[in-house]
Amino acid sequence: MDNHEITMEKIVSLCKRRGFVFQSSEIYGGQAGAWDYGPLGIELKKNIQNAWWKEMTQLHDNIVGLDAAIFMHPRTWEASGHVANFSDPLVDCKDCKMRFRADDESQISKENVEKRICPKCGGELTPPRSFNLMFKTHIGPAEDTASILYLRPETAQGIYVNYKNIIQSNRMKIPFGIAQVGKAFRNEIVTKNFIFRTCEFEQMEMQFFVKPGDDDKFFEYWRGQRWEFYKKYGIRENKLRWYHHEKLAHYAKDAYDIEYEFPMGFSELEGIHNRTNFDLTKHTEYSGKDMSYIDQDNGNEKYIPYIIETSAGLTRNVLMFMCDAYEEQNLAKAGEPEDYRTVLHFHPKIAPVTVAVLPLMKKDGLAELAKDIQNELKEEFVTDYDQAGAIGKRYRRQDEVGTPFCVTVDYDSKEDNTVTLRFRDSMEQVRIPRSELTARIKQEIKNYKRV
Ligand code: ATP
Fold first, then answer.
1. Among residues 136, 359, 381, 400, which one has the fewest Cβ atoms lying within 10 Å of its Cβ?
2. What tens digit of pLDDT does each residue of 263-303 get?
3. Does residue 110 lie within any of the structural domains?
4. pTM
5. What residue owns the CA closest to ligand 1's atom 3?
6. Which residue's alpha carbon is nearest to atom 23 within ligand 1?
């Protein structure tokens, strides 16, 4: 393998070094399945979330937002099928105590499961048994069955139980959607590949309510929309592909995943599911409340809507955007010795910092002038300021975290009020009047195309 190819180790190391993502409770040896987002990580995550939110709610007239509680009535999860069905088949090694998902050949082969031989130590395995992925806890002073509470394993159910509230309060008419971003929890047995699969994660889900019979049409529509979203934010299309599910979940009529080529190979990024009227029918059954829709524009026709779901991992998207942006680029011309820079080619709307302001020198009033320019830019953009070290090193530091624009302030700036605007991807520099900076950067963001 080429030394300068992307690996998960490089992403993990950059994330830690530059404050994107830290191991949870690191000083105690770490907590498996959980990660903390540092100053740049939280900006990146928020930008992805905002881009998604804008796409779903602002750019679609018939989609509104919701933020439902993580705690839900435990009957919710009986109705949804999670209490009965949300489980993985597991085998344990009686000797080394390793645990494997029996249905995942990247962990253990079918042969090992059948012969009950541990692939790690050769010891004896238990037969597969079902392990529910929901975290269970208790609410209130008594730990009895009446006090059981589950941490939600998906955000979708909070939307379903509220869909009639939203119809009534916001006068929504089918077809319409409800979008939500929030935490979800799954007791994943094997949490690996950094933030790809964790026990605590965030989802960005949109549930679109349609008339039965219109579901296939809207399923196709949303497949198209979700693919275009990733393209719009600069993700390389040749790194994306569709996976069509042949074995469907108990609630689904059709399901596709958008997969991204992570360093460990193509893996799921987002699922688009036709969930039929399964969930609303079940909630009608379990709650005793009629969840059907009455179409007042069509002679009060009554039906339980079908639901098209687009379900993306927000934290998994953070990893995807990091991986897609990452490049170790050789800047040497032919015949020169190699000279690599690490650069993150984030779309400017996704980049954690949009503009860095760098005074050429600290002295002679340049730092003060640069600060003043930064303060002006702060109103419009997320900014950074760096005066430490040689200017070339400072550019590299910004490249490494994906800052698309650097503004350099030098002695001429003091004389004629011009600055240098440097572009991350091309490394080109232009000299422009300070008064034109904000407008120019906005225009560059609008016209940005990944090369
Ligand atoms: P997988 O097959 O990877 O376990 P899934 O098919 O169970 O995922 P869904 O229930 O469809 O996933 O969840 C929708 C999205 O939520 C996924 O596409 C993924 O981006 C994200 N997601 C699911 N589980 C996790 C997890 N444990 N950690 C991080 N993100 C997750």
1. 136
2. 999 999 999 999 999 999 999 999 999 999 999 999 999 99
3. no
4. 0.93
5. 268
6. 313
